Amino acid sequence: MKSTAFLTPMALIMAMMVQDASAHGRLLVPPHRGYIGKLAQFRGLVPTNFEDHGLNAGGIGQTKGGKHGICGDKFSGKRLHETGGEYGKFPQHREKVIGACYVPG
Questions:
Q1: 40-52: per-residue pLDDT in tens?
Q2: How many alpha carbons lie under 13 Å from residue 69 in its C-beta half-sphere?
Q3: Engineered SS bond to 81: which of 13, 33, 45, 105, CB 3.0-4.6 Å?
Q4: What is the pLDDT of residues 28-87, one digit of tens each?
Q5: What are the record keywords, sorted (predicted)?
């Protein structure tokens, strides 16, 4: 009985100490379109995206209905990383675009 009286408040205190983490990351191999402008061989061809670690296709609220933007862009917003967008201007090698982005699914 004594241990339950001690453990219950301790468990509540520990639960209140848990913090939310907003993690960021980027795909380096193969490099994604937002990162490719930072590579030496593509410098000057594509503008550098300094927010390339924060692409999330609009977040969980946007993507849970299947509306997932291509290349990490928000489905209903500007598509900066798609072909022709600010970070989607790449030279073409034969039939493939260097730094191509593919439709999810």
A1: 887 777 788 887 7
A2: 21
A3: 33
A4: 777 777 777 788 887 777 788 887 777 776 666 666 677 777 777 777 778 777 777 777
A5: Signal
Main-chain phi, psi angles of 87, to 5 degrees: -100, 10
Contact in structure between 57 and 72 (CB atoms under 8 Å): yes
Query: In the numeric block, which tokens belong to residue 41?
Result: 């061989």
Q: What average pLDDT does the chain have? A: 72
Question: For residue 58, what are its two tokens?
Answer: 């609009």
Contact 85, 79 (CB under 8 A): yes
Give the CA distances from residue 94 to residues 30, 71, 87, 97, 98, in Å, rounded to whole numbers and listed in that order. Answer: 19, 22, 20, 8, 10
Both tokens assigned to 83: 């072909």
